[in-house]
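Translocating chain-associated membrane protein structure dump, as promised
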Amino acid sequence: MGIRKKTNKNPPVLSHEFVIQNHADIVSCVAMVFLLGLMFEVTSKFAVIFITVQYNVTISNNGPEETAVNHFHHGIKDLATIFFYMLVAIIMHAIIQEYVLDKINRKKHFSKTKHSKFNESGQLSAFYLFSFGWGTSILLSENFLSNPVSLWEGYPHTLMPFQMKFFYICQLGYWLHALPELYFQKSKKEDIPRQLVYIFLYLVHIAGAYILNLNRLGLVLMVSHYFVEFLFHVSRLIYFSNESNQMGFTIWAVLFVVGRLLTLSLSVLTVGFGLSTAEKQGFDLAAGNFNIFFVRMTVLAAICFTQAFMMWKFINFQLRRWREHAEAQSLKKKQAPTKSKSKKDKANGVNGVNSHGADSPRSRKEKSS
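structure tokens r here:
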């Protein structure tokens, strides 16, 4: 994310600079149009599609006290809801940037490179922390951690509780909002390909778990992954304020490898073994059942490819860090002898002057006597 320079000059209306400077206000006005649509009966049916979660199914529990439980499934109308919460994500991004990150940047006086990385880590650490807490609360309330068999038992999991569906809607909305933010934040050309890659990977995996009704497995993998990524970006924020403090990167490195192993283990256990022995086999688009060999192998191949790609990037990152550390240590060793030599030269120079040129204080006393 580039540095946004504030100038006193007002750019022309609808110019690139005008849109970039006022994008949060423009998006807020668009979101307000949908909210105002709820006030009128003519437009409320249309506005509800964008604001509220769609495809509600009420299930009554037969028991001593009959209660109704609301569940949700996915459908084409979810695209409208995702679009609205993408607008909300753009607004929240601008609020965090202006009222938190920009104030810290002005105090710290970071360089251009550190400024860009600090903004990226600040935004992502806030998102990862929020998503990790929200996802963990869903896992605990639905007892997915205490009963791992529920990850594949009863597939297809077409019905989701409200919190789980809303979680997926917000996740897709956030990662979609990252695309226009590349323009709004004036991202550097050399940073855009890297950011597009991880945005694309997030969207493909989250949307794949949502559409293929693997939402329980996707939720567990997202929570574990977000925790590890949160540690990385917090460690980078700490490193920018104190470059000698790199303990966070060491903890992150260990948990990163553990996270990759956990992701592969759960994926193979759920998709490779659990779904292959499930009662409902076959492909049924209407019922949301995608439990066939080709789909299972495609899902596993995509997960394994992504984990291998992340490990390759991780190894390159660690090698670069070790190389930089070794170069810094070698520079320190080279500087130490030169300093000692310079001190010896100065001492020898003073003694040489006293012996060949100027008289020492003792000789001057002897001459005077």
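Residues 115-329 form one domain.
lmk if u need the other ones
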